[in-house]
């Protein structure tokens, strides 16, 4: 496949976006950009500074003063807030939840929009998040929206957290994920929803490689039409 495209993958928590995006980017030798990680890094830092999402003035000050650095030169995205590397500290479900809350604040979304666009607009990239196709890269070449049943998504996230060594209560996780998705879908700014042009893929009963193969077919079709 020729280089240069911007490919977006949106969808709710636990749908397999990261796994699929990484695999697809690998197949295409593209860069992979995990935008959820940026929201998580901000949530992590705000939490440790004791700044809540209702502190508008403090939030503005925070984004003026904080240097957010993304390093995509290795196989995964490394994130630094000022000089602290937060890459491995942001993967808990607690931070995911905090990221969802913080991400509903317009100041936060505005501050992160440019960072995401700067990285993505160079092309040859698979970008993953909630509003990639609708807001951040509305002119992307190929857009996907991943879906999966709630039970499949909870199970996937549960297994992922257990693998990381976290202590997880399945029922609580399931409730948390439902609240988080509702929050992401119902916020006024950049809510989670498929772009009308997005290819919908339900990953419930199919393997990662099958999802990736379907995506490659769509991309191939796109290139042949051009
Ligand atoms: O994909 P994730 O679980 O790492 O994302 C964490 C939260 O960040 C998610 O619940 C909502 C927010 N987010 C967002 O609002 N927009 C994005 N493009 C990516 C994530």
Write the SSE topology:
Blueprint: E1 6-10, H1 17-28, E2 31-34, H2 35-49, H3 56-65, E3 68-71, E4 78-81, E5 84-85, H4 93-102, H5 106-120, E6 125-129, H6 132-136, E7 142-147, H7 150-163, H8 170-186, E8 199-202, H9 208-225
Parallel strand pairs: 1-6, 1-7, 2-6, 7-8
Antiparallel strand pairs: 3-4, 4-5
Helix pairs in contact: 1-9, 2-4, 4-8, 7-8
TL;DR of this structure?
With 226 residues, the chain is α/β, with parallel strands linked by helices. It contains 9 helices and 8 strands.
If you had to describe this structure to a student in words, what would you say it looks like?
- The chain is an alpha/beta fold and 226 residues long.
- The protein is 51% helix and 15% strand.
- The strands form 2 sheets. It has a 5-stranded parallel beta sheet with strand order 2-6-1-7-8, sandwiched between helices. It has a 3-stranded antiparallel beta sheet with strand order 3-4-5, covered by helices on one side.
- A hairpin with a 6-residue loop joins strand 3 and strand 4 (78-81).
- Helix 1 (17-28) crosses helix 9 and helix 2 packs across helix 4.
- The radius of gyration is 17 Å and the shape is globular.
- The protein starts with 5 loop residues before the first strand and ends with a helix.
- The model has no long low-confidence stretch (mean pLDDT 94).
- The structure holds 2'-deoxycytidine-5'-monophosphate.
